[in-house]
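Structure tokens please, single chain.
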Amino acid sequence: MDEQYNTNQSSTVINQEPSSDDRLMGTLIYVLSFFTSLIVPLIIWLIKREDSPFIDKTGKNYFNFLLSYMIWLIVASIAMFIIIGFILFPIIVILNFIFTIVAAVKAYNGEDYLPPLSIRFFK
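Here you go.
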């Protein structure tokens, strides 16, 4: 009986609206990525992921986004030998910039957001 109660209680916590501190930390994951794309977001996620399901999900979304766009940039770099990469590379860089800003705003609003073209490596 207690196990069932704990299961229901934990699912209630997951569906709970994120606090303003959680939303701020989720936003900082994206905003600070402009200055350091890996280290600071990783530190925030590793420290806060156990405290908040929202920060855990936001961190996973960010790293899915980061890895995916790194892959797309590598593909565009290789495609430069075929000339099309000279068009793809700047487009991917611009999309990365735009979707980072959009994701920061969504995190600040407490929304779960995985930018387009992202591959889910972490679930």
